[in-house]
Every structure is written in C-alpha cells, then in structure tokens.
Design brief:
six-stranded mixed β-sheet; Rossmann fold; 11 helices; Alpha-Beta Plaits; 308 residues; 34% helix; 14 strands; four-stranded antiparallel β-sheet; single chain; globular; 2 domains
C-alpha cells in the first residue's frame, strides 16, 4: 500500500534538558494511515519525541507539525486530533473505570449520551465490562494499561500515539491490543508506537525508526532492515575457540558475535546453509533460527544495559 499524504513531519527537532540533549536535530515524516515504530534503548529519546507530538513538552528548537498544525502555536487543535496512551499511569484514582472514560470525553465536548455509548463500547472491546463501576485502585496493572488504551481511542483520533502500550500485559491482552491497532490501520488512523518488544514492532509497523542517543540511526521496513543488517539465518552454538577457523572458512562473509559462552553466526546466504554444515560437523546445543528485528536492534545499539 502506498502512502502519499504526510501527516506528521519533523525538521531539526531538538529537545534539551539543561545540558542534556534528549532529542538531537532529528528529521522524519509519517504518512497518513501508516503505523511507524520508534525503537531505541532506555533514554534514547523515544518518549521525549512522542511527548512533543502531543504538546506535553515544547521543543527547544526545530519544527514539528501534525496534520499541518505546529506544536509551537496550535496545541489546542492538535489535542483534538490526537489520542494518547502514555507510558505512565495517569488515570484518575478518584473515579471509577467508566467515569475515567466519560469525564475524559468532556475535554472533547462529546455529548453525554455519546460519551456513555463510546465508553461502554471501549470497555466491551477491552474486556473491562465487569470492572465498569470499580475504583482504579482495584485494577491490576494490565487492566490499567487496557483502560489507558481504551481512553486514547475515545475521541476517535486521526493520530494515535502509543508509548509502550503493551508493557505489563499478558499474551492474550497484547493480542487484543494488536487487533485494535490493525482495525485502526484499516480506518486510516495514523499510529506512532514506541515499544521494547521487537516482535510487536515487526508485526504491526509499516516502518521503524531506530533512535539512539537522541538521533535517528536507521529507518526502514522491518523485513528490509533484517535483510540489510543481519541477513537470513542465525546459527547459535557453544563457543569453541578451536572451531572458529573451520567456521570462518565455511562462512566467509558471515558476521560472528560472541555472547558469553555462546557464539552467533549471521549469514545472508539462503536458508539451509547451516544444516549442510552441521551434517558434516555434528555438535551439541545448536540452534538455527531466522534473523529478526531484535538482532538488528542489538547490532545497531549495542548490548550494554542502559539506565533511564
């Protein structure tokens, strides 16, 4: 599917906190109906970028527009077009589940009857009907995430900003959230998704932008990035120094990466080359798998742990 209408555009977008540059002169475009993933380690600048999109944080410099509206001067208009599921729990603890939704509708001047109708529909879809009249404190963490997602959809937004929407959800609830994203894409809703789950990004996103240290270091379709950076297949075996020359001779163009006592070998050769090698050199504790987006992410951003 070709995307032609630019709905979100950043040019030289920068955000500084005192001497720290969280977002460093980034440029990007997001087209109407696209789902674009913002991926990066903790502290890379993903959430800061999303917060600038919904006018929670003002940019230090640069330009950011949503549907032709500038975040510097037209925040009120932008907020009417945008649905937001922030990373943090910002539900109102003084209200019940249903009231969190109906009161939120007032910000968009949604009539009372329509607000109740939409709220009940969202509770039904996200399987929260039984919790309709309970206080927020009685919800599990996963239920709160589902309610935040439901609230983000209440104004039927043109643009949906999802900041790690499925963190803490069980597999069933994650798939429910994915179903909703797919349905919204069919309705031409434009979606920005930040996530630490690479499988989620690969399944849902038309394109991903990999951000590190405030800069966009790579972008493209998930499958294209996998092919470009890590190839087709990965062989994982126990690290054995004596075997290295044989492996390097067998796979001359491959990338070798040691992870503790395991060795990963990445190749862009067609599927099946590793099986042939293992028939001649049988060994224990071997895994052959398809290369994936997580391999790309780790290759580009490194394997060291990051703190927030």
């Amino acid at each position: 599917m070709g995307y032609t209408e630019v709905l979100i555009e950043a040019q030289g977008l920068t955000k500084k906190f005192d001497d720290f540059t969280a977002v460093d002169h980034i440029d990007f475009k997001v087209y109407k109906g696209e789902c674009v993933g913002f991926l990066g380690p903790n502290g890379a600048g993903k959430t800061t970028t999303v917060r600038m999109m919904y006018c929670f944080l003002p940019p230090t410099s640069g330009e950011l527009k949503l549907a032709g509206l500038s975040v510097n001067t037209q925040c009120r208009e932008i907020k009417s077009l945008v649905g937001v599921a922030p990373q943090e729990d910002n539900l109102d603890p003084d209200f019940t589940v249903i009231k969190n939704l109906t009161v939120y509708c007032r910000y968009f001047d949604i009539p009372k009857d329509e607000a109740l109708k939409r709220s009940n529909e969202q509770l039904k879809f996200f399987q929260l009907e039984e919790k309709r009249d309970v206080p927020i404190a009685a919800l599990s963490g996963g239920m709160k995430r589902r309610l935040i997602f439901a609230r983000a959809l209440i104004n039927q937004p043109q643009i949906l900003l999802l900041d790690e929407p499925t963190t803490g959800l069980d597999p069933q609830a994650r798939h429910l959230a994915w179903d909703e994203v797919r349905e919204l894409k069919k309705k031409q809703v434009t979606i920005i998704l930040t996530t630490h789950y690479m499988d989620e990004a690969a399944i849902l996103c038309d394109r991903v932008l990999i951000i590190d240290k405030g800069k966009i270091i790579e972008e493209g379709k998930p499958a294209d990035l996998v092919k470009k950076h890590v190839g087709e297949e990965v062989l994982e075996i126990d690290y054995d120094k004596t075997l290295l020359p044989t492996l390097k001779e067998a796979f001359p163009g491959a990338d070798f990466e040691r992870l503790g006592d395991r060795l990963q070998i990445f190749t862009d050769k067609p599927h099946g080359v590793f099986e042939g090698f293992l028939q001649e050199h049988p060994m224990q504790n071997v895994t052959i798998r398809s290369a994936n987006l997580e391999d790309v992410f780790l290759k580009l951003t490194g394997r060291g742990l990051r703190e927030e």
